[in-house]
Specification:
The complex is a heterodimer of chains A (260) and B (212).
Chain A (H helix, E strand, L loop, with lengths): L11 H11 L2 H21 L8 H20 L43 E4 L9 H5 L4 E8 L5 E10 H7 L8 E6 L4 E5 H4 L5 E6 L2 E2 L9 E3 L12 E7 L6 H4 L9
Parallel strand pairs in A: 1-9
Antiparallel strand pairs in A: 2-3, 3-6, 4-5, 4-9, 6-7, 6-8
Chain B lengths: L1 H14 L9 H27 L16 H30 L1 H6 L4 H12 L13 H25 L5 H6 L2 H29 L1 H9 L2
Helix pairs in contact in B: 2-3, 6-8, 8-9
The chains are: A alpha+beta (260), B mainly alpha (212).
């Protein structure tokens, strides 16, 4: 297992500079003030927990431990609750990893030229056109999308069962990870048991319509057993593999498994 | 030898003669571990609330813990283990030793009324530290209840699929989150009264440190 997200990334300074750039002024101020919050605790406890990255490293290790606990808790057959259509949240909230948090910044993808790349441990790594993807057997779910920030919303998604798709590509189903690289530069990865869960789907339709640009055209991975940021939009490449690949938010310390 | 004496002293406390050891070592230890874990949970929890305030206010940043939402979540999901394991040790000891039953029940409404009146008049006594008055009993039973509820509602919003039954019992995700918040509020209110009382009766604070 090559997974060690806590060892310093060679591009750490670059990533940090990038992160700072992403922060608007009030948020940057907030960050500084949260650091002050820790300072207060330092005064109270008499030991400097901000000093050095030891506290950060310890928290990172506990987060890795929590990944294992969650994998152990995860049941491949336990289903997320499905809701009646009357419970659907309309309008469904928009949320992005980029700032400003605006659907105007969502990528524009030409459906005719679009290709999905399938890479890694698969028997058939040929590209998929949208027509070929749309022809796959379709399932529909009305489930609750839960964001790590705490809000939640009920939506309706349709598409192909991801396990079905993986089998069609001849993927090695004993591989550890499935990684998603998106056309808006977002990335994330999930564990194989979750990828094979019956409610994990590649969604092409949303609320009985083609998945709109703001919600991830042409496709989004819908995983009702994980937090929202583990549901990538605008997927361009799917890779099956045994090497831990992390993801965009995971780089910032968000828990990788993030199961529900 | 020392253990023998302490055991005898504890026994005496239990039957109320020549009481010396008021809080056995395990109660003192779990009390302070809980205090630390609870404060980390509350401060990081406030920052998590600030990421998307359900209620229309933000907690001041100086009272929150962790570098941004990611940091707050890391603290929260680390301290939860300490809180849960420590809480289970405390409750198991309290139930099996009979200490909880002996100290916290019965609570009679008449005694409650009398003690609340006395408290409001500033005449409520806590001279014998080994015996809790009715107001204390209600507060301690209440905060144990809030503690259990905060853990159950926490599990319900941490794993609404794997612990689906809990989430359903608490009225689904959004409601369970409010219950989590409400039980935190109960604990914080208790904490404020508790700390003021401990400072007003310093011997009680002493007893929680030294045992007597």
């Amino acid at each position: 297992m090559s997974r060690d997200p806590r060892s310093p990334h060679p591009d750490t300074p670059l990533i940090l500079r990038e992160a700072a750039k992403r922060l608007d002024r009030p948020t940057r101020r907030l960050f500084l003030r949260s650091a002050l919050g820790l300072g207060t605790l330092t005064l109270l406890s008499g030991c400097d927990i901000m000093d050095g990255t030891s506290a950060e490293q310890a928290l990172g290790r506990i987060s890795d431990f929590n990944d294992r606990v969650q994998a152990w808790l995860f049941s491949p057959t336990r289903l997320a609750r499905e809701y009646p259509e009357s419970d659907i949240t309309r309008p469904f909230p928009f949320n992005s990893f980029y700032t400003p948090n605006s659907p105007e910044k969502a990528p524009v993808i030409d459906p005719v030229r679009y290709r999905l790349n399938v890479t890694g441990l698969v028997a058939d790594s040929s590209d998929w056109t949208l027509d070929r993807l749309y022809a796959l057997p379709r399932v529909t779910q009305v489930t609750r999308h839960i964001c790590i920030e705490g809000w939640s919303a009920v939506g309706k998604w349709s598409g192909v069962r991801f396990s079905d798709f993986l089998r069609r590509t001849g993927a090695d189903l004993r591989a550890k990870y499935v990684t998603f690289r998106c056309d808006d530069q977002y990335t994330t990865s999930i564990d194989m048991p979750t990828a094979l869960h019956p409610q994990t789907i590649l969604a092409f339709w949303f609320d009985d319509d083609v998945l709109p640009r703001r919600h991830g055209f042409p496709m989004k991975l819908r995983v009702p057993t994980k937090l929202g940021f583990k549901n990538p939009k605008h997927i361009g490449e799917i890779e099956v593999g045994n090497d831990y690949t992390g993801g965009y938010w995971e780089t910032y310390g968000y828990n990788w498994f993030s199961g529900l | 030898m020392a253990t023998l004496i302490e055991a005898n002293l504890q026994k005496n406390t239990a039957v109320g003669i020549g009481a010396v050891i008021i809080h056995p070592r395990i109660v003192r230890l779990t009390h302070w571990v809980n205090a630390g874990a609870m404060i980390v949970m509350i401060m990081s929890g406030w920052q998590i609330h600030n990421a998307y305030p359900t209620l229309p206010f933000r907690f001041p940043d100086v009272l929150t813990l962790g570098f941004g939402l990611a940091g707050a979540l890391q603290w929260h999901f680390a301290a939860m283990w300490l809180l849960a394991v420590n809480g289970m040790i405390y409750l198991s000891y309290g139930v099996m030793s009979g200490r909880l039953r002996r100290k916290l029940v019965p609570i009679y409404p008449s005694a409650m009324l009398r003690d609340v009146r006395a408290a409001l008049a500033g005449r409520l006594k806590h001279d014998d530290l080994s015996v809790y008055n009715a107001v204390q009993r209600v507060l301690y039973v209440g905060v144990i209840g809030a503690g259990v509820l905060v853990v159950i509602s926490g599990l319900a919003i941490w794993k609404p699929v794997q612990f689906r039954i809990l989430t359903t019992l608490l009225g689904d995700f959004d409601n369970a989150r409010l219950i989590h918040f409400a039980s935190m509020t109960g604990i914080v209110l208790f904490l404020m009264v508790h700390v003021v009382m401990a400072l007003l009766v310093p011997s009680s604070l002493c007893a929680m440190v030294r045992g007597r």
